[in-house]
Design a protein that fits this description.
Structural class: alpha/beta
Radius of gyration: 21 Å
Order of helices and strands: EHHEHEHEHEHEEEHHEEHEHHEH
Number of helices: 12
CATH architecture of the largest domain: 3-Layer(aba) Sandwich
Number of domains: 2
Largest sheet: 7 strands, mixed
Distance between the termini: 31 Å
CATH superfamily of the largest domain: Type I PLP-dependent aspartate aminotransferase-like (Major domain)
CATH topology of the largest domain: Aspartate Aminotransferase, domain 2
Shape: globular
Length: 372
C-alpha cells in the first residue's frame, strides 16, 4: 500500500513505539497511585507534558492531556463559554473549521449562546476586516484553526488573536494539523493538539491553556489533570505523545525540506486539468487537495485500492455529503465530488508519491475516455 492520507493520521514513528513499549508491559501502574511505581509513571507523564509544551512553543501557559483533539476542542469551547463574563455570550468562528469545533459551537447555540460563523474566500482564507466588523463587547471567544485539515490552508491566527484581544475576547486555535509543521505564533489563549497527527499514538491529545484562560471542567470525577480534567491518564499514550513531539521539534527542518521536495514532485507529475483547492501560497504543502472536471472521486478511490487517499475529513467521509470545507470555498456539489485529498510527510518516498500520482492521473483520464 502507498499511504497518502497524512491528514487523517500518520504512521507511528519507530522511536515513539520504542518509548511506549515499557509502559504497555512492565510499567503498568496507575500514575495517580501513591506507590513508588505510581510516582514513576506520574514522573514520566510530567516529562511528556514538558515535551509537548516545548513543541507547541508558547509561553505563559501549560498543557492538560485529553483523550484527543475532539475532547480538547469541546472542552475549550464549552468550558470557556461556561466561564464567560456576564454579557459576553457570543462565539465567532469560521465555516471551514473541523466538525469538532463547528458541532460544539452549534450545540452551544442551542444552549442560548449567540453564534457567528464567518465565510471564507474562494482561497479558503478568512477576511480579517470582516472579522473586525463582527467583534464587539459581547464576544467571549473567537475560534480559528491554523492549518485546515481538508485543504491545508494556513489562517493568520496571530492577527486573529490580536483582534480578538482588542475586543476583550479569548482566542482558541485548533493546531492539530499545524503542530510540527507550521509554527504556532504567540497570540492564542487556548490551543488544541493531537498525537496521532505527528507520528504519535491515537487516543491522546492536549489542550494548551494560557494562565488565567483555563476553561471550566468538561469531565468530572477526580480532577486528575490539574484539577480541570478527570480520568486516569495512560502513561504509554502520554509518553508516546511526548516522544512524537520531541521528534517533531528535532526533525522540523528536515521534515519541511522533504515535504517541499515532495510537493514539487507532485506538481511535476500531475498532468493538465487538475485544479488545487484553496490557496497555493498560504498552505501546508503536505496537503494537496485537487479536483478535476467530471472526475468521480469515490470511484477513483475504489479503483485504486492499494493507494490510500481520501475525499476529505476522515470524520465526515462516510456521511455521503459534500465536504463543508469545499462548499465554503464556493465549489458546487459536483466539484466537491470531483476532489481528492492527498497527504504526504516524513515517511513518504518520492518514488511512491510519483507512482501513486501517475496512477491517479491515469485513472482520472480513464474515466474521461469511458465517458466520451
Amino acid at each position: 500500500m502507498i499511504y497518502l492520507d497524512y491528514q487523517a493520521t500518520t504512521p507511528v514513528a519507530p522511536e515513539v513505539a520504542e518509548a511506549m513499549a515499557p509502559w504497555i508491559t512492565g510499567k503498568f501502574a496507575n500514575p495517580h497511585s501513591p506507590s513508588r511505581w505510581g510516582h514513576e509513571a506520574s514522573a514520566a507523564i510530567e516529562v511528556a507534558r514538558g515535551q509537548v509544551e516545548r513543541a507547541i512553543g508558547l509561553g505563559g501557559g501549560s498543557v492538560a492531556f485529553t483523550g484527543g483533539a475532539t475532547e480538547a476542542l469541546n472542552w475549550a469551547l464549552k468550558g470557556t463559554m461556561e466561564r464567560a463574563q456576564p454579557g459576553r455570550n457570543r462565539i465567532v468562528t469560521v465555516a471551514t473549521e473541523h466538525a469538532a469545533a463547528l458541532d460544539s459551537c452549534e450545540w452551544l447555540a442551542g444552549q442560548g449562546f449567540d453564534l457567528t460563523v464567518l465565510p471564507v474566500g474562494s482561497d479558503g482564507l478568512l477576511d480579517l476586516d470582516l472579522l473586525e466588523r463582527e467583534l464587539d463587547e459581547r464576544v467571549a471567544l473567537v475560534a480559528v484553526m491554523l492549518v485546515n485539515n481538508e485543504i491545508g490552508v494556513v489562517q493568520p491566527v496571530a492577527e486573529v488573536a490580536a483582534r480578538a484581544h482588542a475586543a476583550g475576547a479569548l482566542m482558541l486555535c485548533d493546531a492539530v494539523q499545524a503542530l510540527g509543521r507550521v509554527p504556532i505564533l504567540e497570540g492564542p489563549d487556548l490551543v488544541a493538539v493531537s498525537a496521532h497527527k505527528i507520528h504519535g499514538p491515537k487516543g491522546v491529545g492536549a489542550l494548551w491553556m494560557r494562565k488565567g484562560a483555563e476553561p471550566a471542567p468538561l469531565i468530572h470525577g477526580g480532577g486528575q489533570e490539574r484539577g480541570l480534567r478527570s480520568g486516569t491518564l495512560s502513561p504509554a499514550l502520554c509518553v508516546g505523545f511526548g516522544a512524537a513531539a520531541t521528534l517533531a521539534v528535532e526533525r522540523e527542518g528536515a521534515d519541511k525540506l522533504h515535504i517541499l521536495r515532495l510537493w514539487d514532485a507532485a506538481l511535476g507529475t500531475l498532468g493538465p486539468g487538475w485544479i488545487i483547492n484553496g490557496s497555493v501560497d498560504r498552505r501546508h504543502r503536505g496537503n494537496l487537495n485537487i479536483r478535476r472536471q467530471g472526475l468521480d472521486a469515490p470511484r477513483l478511490i475504489a479503483d485504486l485500492r492499494d493507494v490510500a487517499i481520501s475525499l476529505g475529513s476522515a470524520c465526515a467521509s462516510g456521511s455521503g455529503r459534500p465536504s463543508h470545507v469545499l462548499r465554503a470555498l464556493g465549489l458546487t456539489p459536483q466539484q466537491a465530488r470531483s476532489s481528492v485529498r492527498i497527504g504526504f510527510g516524513r515517511y513518504t518516498s518520492e518514488t511512491e508519491l510519483v507512482d501513486a500520482l501517475s496512477r491517479i492521473d491515469a485513472g482520472a483520464r480513464g474515466q474521461e475516455s469511458v465517458a466520451a
